[in-house]
Amino acid sequence: MPFEKPTATFGGRTWWSSIEQNEHFVLQGHRMPSIWPSSPYRILIEANSFQIASARDKDVALADWREVMSLCQQEPLKVR
Predict the structure, then answer these.
(1) Which domain holds residue 16?
(2) Cα-flanking dihedrals φ and ψ of residue 62, to 5°?
(3) d(Cα 78, Cα 66) in Å, to the nearest integer?
(4) What is the pLDDT of residue 9?
(5) Does residue 2 lie in a domain region?
(6) For the segment 42-60, what is each residue's pLDDT rounded down to a tens digit?
(7) Most buried residue, 7, 23, 45, 54, by most Cβ within 10 Å?
(8) Could you give the number of structural domains in the chain?
C-alpha cells in the first residue's frame, strides 16, 4: 500500500460514513460509491481530516487500515 501525501479534504464528512476509527485515524467509505468518481474508501488523520490513503474496494481499505494500525504499534524512531 503506498501512502499518499496528506491532503486536505475540506470537510465533506457528511458524504462519508465511518467504518473503523481510533483516537488518531478514521477509515471511511463514501455513502454513494457508485457516483463517486475516485476511490470510495479513505483513511484520514482524525486531528486535521487530512487523507493519507485511499482504496477502490473495501478489502484493500481494510488491509490498509491494518497496516496503519501496525505502524502505530511500533516504537518511534530515535533521532540523534
Answers:
(1) 7-73
(2) -70, -35
(3) 24
(4) 62
(5) no
(6) 999 888 888 899 999 999 9
(7) 54
(8) 1
Half-sphere exposure of 15 (CA within 13 A, CB side): 13
Report residue 40 CA to chain centroid gap.
11
pLDDT at res. 4: 61
Q: Are 68 and 53 in contact (CB under 8 A)?
A: yes
Task: Please state the rounded mean pLDDT for residues 17-41.
Answer: 85
Strands (E), 1-80: 7-8, 16-21, 25-30, 41-45, 50-55
The answer to whether residue 66 is domain-embedded is: yes
**Residue 67 forms part of a structural domain:** yes
Whether 62 maps to a domain, the answer reads yes
pLDDT score at 25 = 93
pTM of the entire predicted model: 0.76
